[in-house]
Amino acid sequence: MDEKKLYDYNIDETFDLFLLIKSAIVRVAKNGKKFIAFTFQDKSGQMDGKYWDANEADIEKYQGGTVVKVSGKRELYQGNPQIRLFHMRLTNAGEPDKAEQFIEKAPIKKEDMMEEINETVFEITNANWNRIVRYLLNKYQKEYFQAPAAKRFHHAFYGGLAFHTVSMLRLAKSITAQYEEIDHSLLYAGVILHDLGKVMELTGPVSTEYTLEGNLVGHIVLVDEEITKACQALKINDKIEDVTLLKHMILAHHGKLDFGSPVVPKLREAEILYHIDHLDATINMLNNTLNRTEPGTFSERIFGLDNRSFYKPNTNRLSNEKEEESDTLF
Amino acid sequence: MDEKKLYDYNIDETFDLFLLIKSAIVRVAKNGKKFIAFTFQDKSGQMDGKYWDANEADIEKYQGGTVVKVSGKRELYQGNPQIRLFHMRLTNAGEPDKAEQFIEKAPIKKEDMMEEINETVFEITNANWNRIVRYLLNKYQKEYFQAPAAKRFHHAFYGGLAFHTVSMLRLAKSITAQYEEIDHSLLYAGVILHDLGKVMELTGPVSTEYTLEGNLVGHIVLVDEEITKACQALKINDKIEDVTLLKHMILAHHGKLDFGSPVVPKLREAEILYHIDHLDATINMLNNTLNRTEPGTFSERIFGLDNRSFYKPNTNRLSNEKEEESDTLF
Amino acid sequence: MDEKKLYDYNIDETFDLFLLIKSAIVRVAKNGKKFIAFTFQDKSGQMDGKYWDANEADIEKYQGGTVVKVSGKRELYQGNPQIRLFHMRLTNAGEPDKAEQFIEKAPIKKEDMMEEINETVFEITNANWNRIVRYLLNKYQKEYFQAPAAKRFHHAFYGGLAFHTVSMLRLAKSITAQYEEIDHSLLYAGVILHDLGKVMELTGPVSTEYTLEGNLVGHIVLVDEEITKACQALKINDKIEDVTLLKHMILAHHGKLDFGSPVVPKLREAEILYHIDHLDATINMLNNTLNRTEPGTFSERIFGLDNRSFYKPNTNRLSNEKEEESDTLF
Amino acid sequence: MDEKKLYDYNIDETFDLFLLIKSAIVRVAKNGKKFIAFTFQDKSGQMDGKYWDANEADIEKYQGGTVVKVSGKRELYQGNPQIRLFHMRLTNAGEPDKAEQFIEKAPIKKEDMMEEINETVFEITNANWNRIVRYLLNKYQKEYFQAPAAKRFHHAFYGGLAFHTVSMLRLAKSITAQYEEIDHSLLYAGVILHDLGKVMELTGPVSTEYTLEGNLVGHIVLVDEEITKACQALKINDKIEDVTLLKHMILAHHGKLDFGSPVVPKLREAEILYHIDHLDATINMLNNTLNRTEPGTFSERIFGLDNRSFYKPNTNRLSNEKEEESDTLF
Amino acid sequence: MDEKKLYDYNIDETFDLFLLIKSAIVRVAKNGKKFIAFTFQDKSGQMDGKYWDANEADIEKYQGGTVVKVSGKRELYQGNPQIRLFHMRLTNAGEPDKAEQFIEKAPIKKEDMMEEINETVFEITNANWNRIVRYLLNKYQKEYFQAPAAKRFHHAFYGGLAFHTVSMLRLAKSITAQYEEIDHSLLYAGVILHDLGKVMELTGPVSTEYTLEGNLVGHIVLVDEEITKACQALKINDKIEDVTLLKHMILAHHGKLDFGSPVVPKLREAEILYHIDHLDATINMLNNTLNRTEPGTFSERIFGLDNRSFYKPNTNRLSNEKEEESDTLF
Amino acid sequence: MDEKKLYDYNIDETFDLFLLIKSAIVRVAKNGKKFIAFTFQDKSGQMDGKYWDANEADIEKYQGGTVVKVSGKRELYQGNPQIRLFHMRLTNAGEPDKAEQFIEKAPIKKEDMMEEINETVFEITNANWNRIVRYLLNKYQKEYFQAPAAKRFHHAFYGGLAFHTVSMLRLAKSITAQYEEIDHSLLYAGVILHDLGKVMELTGPVSTEYTLEGNLVGHIVLVDEEITKACQALKINDKIEDVTLLKHMILAHHGKLDFGSPVVPKLREAEILYHIDHLDATINMLNNTLNRTEPGTFSERIFGLDNRSFYKPNTNRLSNEKEEESDTLF
């Protein structure tokens, strides 16, 4: 197996790679024949490619979640990377065939994320919040560290939910250190649980889709239900203020009714949670996109940021070396 | 005790009545002295009145929920009815002093509403929905038939929640009779449970206020939690489609994210539930307001209807007698 | 002639059918050659099909409103039904060639709709409204029972306007029976006339398009003009309150300025007319779409319902049989 | 009778004047007594004043539309001019008592406006439009030159409708002279008729209120009805394109659905009519307000201009004398 | 060289012409091969055409700004004019090859526009405004008379900025003549400078694109910077009211925050400038589009006018001859 | 002089204090007499109080910015603190009379803020940004450390601008430490300069009002002008990318056109600057308000946060002590 990954190849370079089919959509071309619009992926990222004149057997064989051997050429189509397919087949025995081997993962190891979350739970000094957070992390331990944080927009990879959470916890800790009035226990508990419902809303990190309850109930209310059940299991009266506050953190974390929260933030910590969530998702989308943009040009439009296109400056200004000649200002 | 009620008196007529203080707000007048802005009520309705130069003892005595004996005159202030207070005192032993005796009630007897809802439950032929509806009606039987449907806008009276529900069930039955594709079991279950959370969101029919969980969680999600707990009590798997559909009915019943639903309707029956709820509330607000409007004039503005003012036609066109001379048209 | 209709064929089944060309749009393919994007229809519904490499003679022959004999195969294209065309010709003498024979019709017979509307007119006890309604129904009797209620969204078929009206009258009657304060004469007159302008706004039930006055004046104002002319013909003073109220019913029936009403509803009956119209159109769109959706899947997006996709539940819950074991609840 | 008018007096100067009561609203003061909030006017403008401790006889006597003799002082209240009332009485025989003598009028004489409109009608070379315009100007000749153009916002004075029309015609002529593609006949006909409905929508120039048909039908549709009736009287087929175009000019002249037009402009001339109307109303509101603003300060907020406050520059820059030293630029 | 221009050819007529490539976008067809989507232009206008099966040499040769010799046929594609390409080559020595020879130009000669602007500058009697306007017109004299007023929407041609300015000045003069309260010096200075920033925001009249500072700073603020620099060069204190007023004219000229102005108009003249700009751009877009529309049909949708489609009336009503028989109206 | 400050007194306690008149607005009471609505302040905060029956001498004497000796009582009016005035006089010689002694100040010393900003400037390693930032901080050194950050909403106190900046720099440093792709030089330069224009937009920390250029140009564009002038002074070409990027940071920092930015963020660092600014202002408003709210109640509405009311939880959950019994989670 070739050690080079998909995005290691240059434009117009040919390759011969094992790739995971992330999605396969059958369409009909203007000439009346069917073709398959593939999205392939390996750990270096995702790339589209079209398979022309597909017959029924092809359609049957090459479905989302399948690993295939692909010969092709990396091209540029309307400014986006694309695969020109030469040949494609299913894998043989002995060849890599596990979807998990091909999907992007969080840039931090699962064990490190677990430890970082674990340490934070110790800082949740309110007993009710501490117990509910522990209970739910235990209940969904496996899924929590596998799930993506979204189907598409941000942190849409294996472990994305946990990575998004860890990243938000770091922001939360900077903020509580700076503004001492904030109830850090409530904020950390809110951060850890706010997107737990993604575990139920989405089908998982491979070929991610919405589940029925994801569609009809939504991840926000699904967490509220989990807190309700946790209280029953832990014999915590779910009508006490502690529980109401924690539920509000999750319910209000989209910040506005229009964004799907059934209530707007009415707690200082709920308002801050909304900001942190928004900020981390924004930076993740910006970095993902600008990493694929040439310096001195504008990026593709980012759907999650009002469809704006961002400019990547020309020269590397990130020298991070001290300017020697500058004097004290005041 | 006088048998005439507050709204039986004409403008500029004096009266001597037992009234319930619905709310009492202390303010400071331009002259620096305190006054109490009262809202009084009896079964005929509510009316405001100001108590000038209030001392601390007055403020202590005359609080929301108290029954008082009031001498005064009915006046008109900027087009709204108002009480000019002459004298006021607490009740003596033997005089009426129960808040319940003074508040507006649903125009149908509790027993009749119970029977009508009961009969409808029989028509919910899906076993899961039937069991959940029964369980929750039993659990909240007392509060369900006392609670108002809102703090202010529509059906804001004792038994208002149940009356609103019964009225919506009648609409729902007309509609399912007319459009046979509708799943009537799902629609009826949705109607019965959709506002059950008002029982927890509001403090009750006297001096109605929002509770903390009403404010921070809201009546929509509170019903979802109740369904979650009902499933646990009834040992119904809360991940089956039946339960997801029923939860969606409640969660989507405000119709739009902007109106506080965390998900928009994605089931035919959920969309219809939203329409029925909106229609019954609208007619209730219109009737309440137009009952207080003179023919040939425009009503006061109705907050719940985009602050519109409605015209009450001049002559009584509701003769409901057949026109004799008309011939068959086609 | 084959008795099976277009939608009686299964996917991938071939057929040989007389069909009506509903619309024929000429486009240019990527290869620079022209093709015709057809929409065919018979009474079972509409289906698209592309005619490749069309020459000028083809374009001339195969225009909207023409009946043709089509050999083809029913296929599925991106989830939507589609015709793969094999052969196509004009009809010969003796073969069916009337557009009317191929278009969808209201599910109720014209005579039954006429009778139902006729009976309702008897219930309009206000003489002025009664006379205006009769006059206009007589004037447009033929068109009223042919016109569709819309070009696309709802009740877009032969007799759709009348069927939509009858359906709304049934809702109106349920509602007036339930809420007695409503002036039923005004509401029924409003229902019958509200969309009469479709008769002028649209070109008719075959190859429906907007007329110039449909575009520049619109069906709402067109009805207002008709009432104005009816008053002149009937020698009714068009400045009396009766006439103003009736005109308002029609002018306000879209409910909001944004939806094209020049005034918002300011009469109870006008507000209710808006709700009834909206509800009947909504249910019609939902039923049309869900009839074409597989159980357990989401429908195509419905443009007239904020582009939402609706879920069709998996199992048949419409058993409508009584549950035997349930006890009285209260 | 004093020849000085209300606005000729300085702040803190006392006066003794005949004034017209434009409106008289009865309110109740904090001390429980009634007062009348008057708006007085003479030809110099309008000013508010409060009449404290009003008894029923006062309320009866001093109603909108009555001329009174007022002794008072001009004051400034929260930046707005106000009358401090000393004494007030009804007029005696022989004293001025006609409302018309006290209301603001258009700054052009009625005869000059008639002549200017008359000349413009000659330029409407399309026979149908010419005849309809003539017919309606004749029909409403008297009211057209008396009516205000609005209840409050702009041109709210005797003859305001005609003056607004004349002012717009001047703009229209500049524009048609500059852009030759415009159909000037259509534009002029549209300008002359666009606000004719104000004649029916409002009660007239004294104590202006909305009529019932103003409220329920609105001035836009009222003109459409008048065109419909004019066609009948003139035996013009109201289905020909000429008539549809003219009706569209009026129906679309508010420019957006949100502003109460039932259709948006779909003719070049309709779009331009909207701009001209908007521009003339804007300049009128700006001039009215800035005439009352001190140089170097911000004006009161203008409701009709998004509640904005405008700055009146400090020094007089309107010298309009040529700068002597400037050379030719290019 | 053929003297006929592109738009002089009829549909389906073949031609052999020198044309300028305005833009050339490389795409990949469904068959996997690249093609170039060209926009060609000469002084008669712009037309699209596709070049199939383009190889790398073609892509290299045929870029935006290049003049080419084209053999082709004018066609109609979905209602829009289009070129069917037969053959295409670069120009030879001696053949026309200057982009400037092929681009649309303002319909007024540069010298006439200069003179008209020059004369207007004399009417700016405020010395500070006069000097700033002169300074900036001198500084950008060349670019000011070349630049387009926009990339696409209106006045998108060589000299478009100056022509748009001249056209607005004519409107401004009509308006100041009619409403005498307006400070004409301020208005004219505002008109002349309002879009000067287009000179920096756009790359120029050939293959117009946004510059980096056009994208990140925008033409509105760029003018403000130029005024700041002009004040420094002319030693005018940029904190005096004169300068603040002039800067406000430019900053507020888009009329609303949503349209990119950092402040809303707070001067009478700024509000009027916004109207004039909007009106001239609107008429320009309408005329451009309706010139290409057949009488009796609706135009293509105009992006800059809320995507509306406009109707071009059937018959020529622009006779501009006096109607003989009409009498004086009043 | 009393060492106790205004907010050290309890409700209903009397006091005798030197206070600064922050603002004094003259109004007319219902009885026709004038009164002055004062806002007083000392370092503990601001409180309103009304001065009844004010004569012209009082109005003359007691204006904004004056220090006075006040005898009064602290009261509660509609939930807000208020002063009941007994007596009031100007200060005598030898008594405190400097406004600066009475206004709220940033909670960090000026010298510490200077040092913190100074150190950050060293980290701006891009020479152009470093020089521009230094130049402008030097130019406005005095005002920068006195100015408030707003007239009302957040950081509305002496030194508020600098404190807001320092607080944002701390957030910026946490974020650049966490997300390494961010250009920290650009972000820090943007933070330091983003609100520098407040120095010109507002009149200063005492009796803060908008200046004319604050109103007509606004603080965003005022900074852009300062960068333009700084480039001229420093002989930096203001057309290079470095300068364009820095200008964009300031211009885009309100995040949306609707919020007054003439361009939306199109640089990663500009988007982040918007988030940091929004977050710091939000926390400042929340803390200010919740500091004045009783535990277990809802706060007053916060204008700058969509007029929302926030709940202050009942019990002190900010124990910040480790929970002893909790075990490691994973």
Automatic annotation (TrEMBL), chains A, B, C, D, E, F:
Instruction: Print the organism lineage.
Output: Bacteria, Bacillati, Bacillota, Bacilli, Lactobacillales
Q: Which UniProt keywords apply?
A: Exonuclease, Hydrolase, Nuclease
Q: Which CDD domains match?
A: HDc, YhaM_OBF_like
Protein name per UniProt:
3'-5' exoribonuclease
One Pfam entry for this protein is: tRNA_anti-codon
- Name the InterPro entries on file: HD/PDEase_dom, HD_domain, NA-bd_OB-fold, NA-bd_OB_tRNA, YhaM_exoribonuc/phosphodiest
One GO biological-process annotation of the entry reads: rRNA 3'-end processing
Q: What are the HD domain coordinates in residue numbering?
A: 161-282
Task: Give the species this sequence originates from.
Answer: Pisciglobus halotolerans
GO terms (molecular function) for this protein are: exonuclease activity; nucleic acid binding
